[in-house]
C-alpha cells in the first residue's frame, strides 16, 4: 500500500511539472515578449499548430495586424487575420487551399512582414511545385509517416515537392521577412520547422528522390525535373527561435527542483524509433528525475488508438514493472496520434492493472490499453508545440 501511494504521489507531481513545462512554452506570451516595443502594425503569416496563439501575441504587441493564420484547430484570432484550417497529419484539400491563400497574400504584401512558424505547418499549408501532382505529396507523406521514417527524411522529401517549403513563401513575398520560430526540432535544424516556409534548406533532390524510391514511390520525369531545378535565392531576414523542446524540459526540471527533487535534462534530442529513444533515456537516467525532449518515430502496425507517446509509455511500463519508477510522456501540442490523449504516466503496477500488452502493441492500441489502466494524460489542444517530453523518475 505504501508503494502504491508513493506512485500515486509521484504521478501527481509529474503531471504538475508537465503543466509547468507547458507554461514555459506559452506561444502567445513568448511572441508578445519578442515583439513588444518594436513598432505598430504588420502583415503576419502564422503557420502551424501554435499559429493562433502566436498571432494573438503579435496583436497584443503590435496593435492592429493583418495577415493569415493557418492551423489545425479553430481558435480565437485577432480581427483582420484570415483563419484557414488545414489538414493534419496528411496534407489534403484544405491544406492546398491554405497554401493558395498564403501565396496569394504573399504576392500582395507591403510593409513590415512577420512569419510566425510552428510545428505541424508542413501538412497544414501546401502548394506543389510545377510538375508535381498534389497526390504525390499526399502519398509520400503517408508512406514515410506510417513506415516510422525519421522526421528529417520526411522533411527532405516534402521540401523538394513544395512551392511553400524551404523558403518558398519568402520568395513569393519578395522582400525581407522577420521569422519567429516555436521549434519542434533539434536546435540546429530550425529550418525544418514546418519545413521552413521562410528559410531555405540545402537543395538535395537526389537524396529526396532516393528516399522516395526506398519507400516504394515512383518519381516520373516531370516530377524529377521539378525537384532538380535549383530554387531562386531567398531574401534574407532575421530569424529568432523563441522556444523549443529543451526550453520545456529545463522548465520541468526546474519545477521538480523547486520541490526538492533532483533532476537533469537528457542531453540528446530524442529522435529515431521509440524503442531506441526509450533505451537511451533509460540507460542515461539516474536517481531522481531525467527529462528528455524530441520527436521519436513509430511504425504504425494496426488500426488501434495509439500515438508515439502512448506507445513509448506502454513499452516503458513493461520495463519498469515491479519497480517504484514512474515514467511520463507528453505531446506538447496535446494530441498524440489517434490515442485520444497527449500521452501517459505509467508506473511499476501499470501492467498488473492492464494485463497482457502484446495485443495492444501489435495492434497499435496503446491508447486503448492505457485508457483502461487509467494512465492517460488528457489536455486537449494546448496552443503550443515543441515536440514531445519524456520523463523518468527513479527513487
In short:
This protein has helices at residues 2-24, 27-35, 51-62, 93-106, 121-124, 134-147, 151-159, 168-173, 205-214, 221-228, 245-257, 274-284, 308-319, 350-354, 358-362, 366-373, and strands spanning 43-47, 66-71, 81-85, 113-118, 178-182, 239-243, 263-265, 270-273, 288-297, 326-331, 343-347, 376-377, 388-394. With 395 residues, the chain is of the alpha/beta class.
Spell out the blueprint of helices and strands:
Layout: H1 2-24, H2 27-35, E1 43-47, H3 51-62, E2 66-71, E3 81-85, H4 93-106, E4 113-118, H5 121-124, H6 134-147, H7 151-159, H8 168-173, E5 178-182, H9 205-214, H10 221-228, E6 239-243, H11 245-257, E7 263-265, E8 270-273, H12 274-284, E9 288-297, H13 308-319, E10 326-331, E11 343-347, H14 350-354, H15 358-362, H16 366-373, E12 376-377, E13 388-394
Parallel strand pairs: 1-2, 1-4, 2-3, 4-5, 5-6, 7-9, 8-9
Antiparallel strand pairs: 9-13, 10-11, 10-13, 11-12
The parts where pLDDT drops under 50 for at least 5 residues are 1-5
Sketch the major β-sheet. Answer: 7 strands, mixed
Mean pLDDT comes to 94
Seen as an oligomer or otherwise, the chain set is single chain
* Percent of residues in helices: 40-55%
Number of strands: 13
Overall shape: it is globular
Proportion in β-strands? 15-25%
**Which structural class do you get from the secondary structure elements?**
alpha/beta
C-alpha termini separation: 17 Å
Amino acid at each position: 500500500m505504501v508503494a502504491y501511494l508513493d506512485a500515486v504521489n509521484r504521478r501527481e507531481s509529474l503531471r504538475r511539472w508537465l503543466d509547468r513545462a507547458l507554461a514555459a512554452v506559452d506561444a502567445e506570451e513568448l511572441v508578445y515578449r519578442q515583439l513588444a516595443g518594436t513598432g505598430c502594425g504588420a502583415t503576419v503569416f502564422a503557420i502551424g499548430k501554435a499559429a493562433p496563439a502566436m498571432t494573438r501575441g503579435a496583436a497584443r504587441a503590435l496593435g492592429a495586424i493583418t495577415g493569415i493564420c493557418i492551423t489545425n484547430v479553430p481558435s480565437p484570432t485577432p480581427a483582420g487575420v484570415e483563419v484557414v484550417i488545414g489538414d493534419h497529419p496528411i496534407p489534403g484539400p484544405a491544406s492546398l487551399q491554405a497554401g493558395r491563400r498564403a501565396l496569394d497574400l504573399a504576392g500582395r504584401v507591403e510593409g513590415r512582414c512577420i512569419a510566425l512558424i510552428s510545428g505541424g505547418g508542413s501538412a497544414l499549408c501546401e502548394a506543389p511545385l510545377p510538375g508535381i501532382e498534389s497526390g504525390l505529396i499526399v502519398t509520400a507523406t503517408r508512406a514515410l509517416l506510417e513506415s516510422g521514417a525519421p522526421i528529417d527524411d520526411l522533411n527532405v522529401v516534402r521540401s523538394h515537392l513544395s512551392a511553400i517549403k524551404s523558403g518558398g513563401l519568402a520568395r513569393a513575398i519578395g522582400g525581407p521577412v522577420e521569422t519567429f520560430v516555436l521549434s519542434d526540432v533539434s536546435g540546429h535544424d530550425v529550418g525544418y520547422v514546418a519545413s521552413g516556409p521562410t528559410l531555405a534548406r540545402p537543395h538535395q533532390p537526389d537524396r529526396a528522390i532516393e528516399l522516395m524510391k526506398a519507400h516504394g514511390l515512383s518519381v516520373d520525369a516531370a516530377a524529377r525535373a521539378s525537384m532538380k531545378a535549383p530554387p531562386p535565392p531567398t531574401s534574407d531576414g532575421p530569424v529568432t527561435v523563441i522556444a523549443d523542446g529543451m526550453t520545456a524540459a529545463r522548465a520541468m526540471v526546474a519545477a521538480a527542483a523547486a520541490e526538492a527533487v533532483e533532476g537533469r535534462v537528457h542531453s540528446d534530442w530524442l529522435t529515431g524509433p521509440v524503442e531506441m529513444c526509450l533505451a537511451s533515456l533509460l540507460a542515461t537516467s539516474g536517481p531522481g528525475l531525467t527529462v528528455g525532449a524530441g520527436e521519436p518515430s513509430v511504425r504504425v502496425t494496426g488500426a488501434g488508438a495509439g500515438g508515439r507517446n502512448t506507445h513509448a509509455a506502454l513499452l516503458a511500463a513493461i520495463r519498469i514493472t515491479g519497480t517504484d519508477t514512474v515514467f511520463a510522456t507528453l505531446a506538447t501540442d496535446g494530441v498524440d496520434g489517434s490515442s485520444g490523449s497527449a500521452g501517459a504516466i505509467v508506473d511499476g503496477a501499470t501492467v498488473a492493472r492492464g494485463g497482457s500488452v502484446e495485443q495492444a502493441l501489435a495492434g497499435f492500441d496503446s491508447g486503448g490499453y492505457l485508457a483502461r489502466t487509467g494512465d492517460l494524460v488528457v489536455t486537449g489542444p494546448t496552443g503550443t508545440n515543441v515536440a514531445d517530453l519524456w520523463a523518468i523518475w527513479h527513487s
